[in-house]
Design goal:
The protein is α/β, with parallel strands linked by helices. It is globular, with a radius of gyration of 24 Å. The protein contains 15 helices and 13 strands. 40% of the residues lie in helices and 15% in strands. Helix 1 packs across helix 2. The strands form three sheets. Strands 11-10-9-8-7-6-12-13 form an eight-stranded mixed beta sheet. Strands 2-3-4 form a three-stranded antiparallel beta sheet. Among the domains are: 76 residues, Alpha-Beta Complex (Outer Surface Protein A, domain 3), CATH 3.90.930; 226 residues, Aldolase class I (TIM Barrel, Alpha-Beta Barrel).
């Protein structure tokens, strides 16, 4: 007997329509009022017992629901299948994912940054050791993925070049796909450098902007005190023509609606509103050195409220909305055996929050990987399928138990571990649906204009 997914979410939208979303597949669709009535009748029949007699409309809708994975045949256990994929990806050895910090130095002096005044640059000997680390693992791999991180990785562009070219060669020799991305403050990402990054197969970049120019230049000043906003915007304007660009705006309690409106106005004036993916990041006191900002940080439930308000502003100002409640088999690298963050000394870490803190290292690239090391096991050990609060949650495919570091380092549990989707799914789905509708209308208008 067919059955409906345990991860279905249906909610009223505009007159005559419902939003249908499935957290297991990420499918998002519109359902008419008529189809919603058929859905309710179908659900009642399927719950009543085996071999229900379905009408033609119910059978037709059931076929559509199966296509979007809103429904399954009775021999499919979607939670068991999801747990299987989770375990497959946890122990997968076909993809090597590396987050590499070639330097911990930075050209900015952000007051909330856990990196403080860290220095350090990867030595030639460590570069060679890292190349050897990848070469040793390349046979049998299907993919090698690197993310350049720091510090500000652009301060070690020569190291990125050396390693990128070596990894590209390793990929060719072992017939392994190589992809790369970058996390940068954007100031040094000039058009010339962007063009070089593209040559090294860097396909995407994340840049942080902390509010409109007048605030960003206070929150993210250069080490010499000079402003950075205008240069970053100019650099992004070129980068979007070459690669995918996402802009993160770090949010704390000092932000309000007017500040976001001011920022969106500046980005729209720069012509970036339909060329970047903009999202709002929650600042958390995740490291000891971050305790000075704890009072200005939101907890997730409160952040979800302002996040919703700010995404409504994105919609109002014509920005593309890329944030989706997408399913994932794991939460982050901490749950995966073949993902590592590597600092300039070659130390291996399990979380962005730990990089550069030798006490949190699980080993070094020069040595065999010790999966019994406490700094590996501490974050890896958590299994959302063994946590009742997560196991029964209808958003488990999206969250996968939440941030392991937040759970382990801050001692959070229960709803405190939930992602913002748990608190704002309904209004966010409405915003996403309206954004997609607007995009369809724009495409239709553009097509009509071409046909004139």
């Amino acid at each position: 007997m067919p059955k409906l997914s345990r991860y279905n979410h249906l909610q009223p939208w505009t007159e005559g329509y419902y939003i249908a979303y499935n957290a297991g597949s990420g499918a998002l669709a519109l359902m008419t009022t008529e189809n919603r009535a058929v859905y309710d009748t179908l659900a009642a029949k399927l719950a009543a017992g085996p071999q229900p007699e379905l009408t033609e409309k119910e059978n037709e809708l059931l076929g559509q629901l199966k296509y979007g994975r809103f429904a399954f045949d009775d021999d499919h256990d979607e939670r068991e299948a999801m747990q299987f994929r989770h375990n497959m990806d946890r122990y997968d050895q076909t993809t090597l994912a590396l987050i590499i910090a070639p330097t911990m130095a930075c050209n900015m002096a952000c007051p909330y940054c856990y990196e403080s005044n860290k220095q350090g640059r990867m030595s030639a000997e460590t570069v060679e050791a890292l190349i050897g680390f990848v070469e040793k693992r390349a046979p049998g791999l299907q993919g090698i993925n690197t993310t350049w991180y720091g510090g500000e990785p652009m301060l070690a562009l020569d190291i990125i070049e050396d390693l990128s070219k070596s990894f590209m060669d390793i990929g060719k020799e072992s017939k392994t796909a190589y992809t790369s991305s970058l996390i940068s403050n954007g100031y040094l990402m000039t058009p010339e450098i962007v063009d070089r990054l593209v040559e090294w197969q860097v396909g995407s970049v994340q840049v942080t902007i902390d509010g409109p120019a007048r605030l960003h230049n206070v929150k993210r000043p250069l080490k010499n005190g000079r402003p950075s906003f205008e240069t970053i915007i100019q650099n992004i304007a070129h980068a979007v023509t070459k690669m995918k660009v996402s802009v993160r705006v770090n949010i704390d309690k000092t932000f309000d609606r007017d500040i976001i409106v001011e920022l969106l106005g500046e980005l729209k004036t720069a012509g970036l509103h339909d060329k970047i993916g903009l999202y709002f990041g929650l600042i958390e006191p995740s490291a000891t050195v971050c305790s000075n900002i704890a009072e200005s940080c939101y907890e997730t439930a409160d952040f979800s409220k302002v996040e919703t308000e700010y995404y409504r502003l994105l919609l109002e100002y014509g920005f593309r909305i890329d944030k989706l409640p997408a399913p994932s088999s794991t939460y982050c690298m901490a749950q995966m055996t073949n993902s590592f963050l590597i600092d300039p000394k070659g130390e291996l870490y399990r979380c962005f929050n730990y990089v550069g803190d030798a006490a949190q290292s699980m080993g070094n690239i020069r040595n065999d990987i010790n999966y019994q090391h406490e700094n590996f096991r501490r974050l890896f050990a958590f299994d959302p399928f063994h946590e009742p609060h997560c196991y029964d949650c209808n958003l488990l495919p999206v969250c996968m138990g939440g941030c392991p570091s937040r759970r382990g380092d801050r001692g959070l549990s229960g709803d405190q571990m939930c992602e913002s989707w748990k608190h704002n799914l309904q209004p966010m789905l409405e915003i996403i649906a309206r954004s997609r509708q607007a995009q369809q209308q724009q495409r239709a208008a553009a097509a009509a204009k071409e046909n004139l």
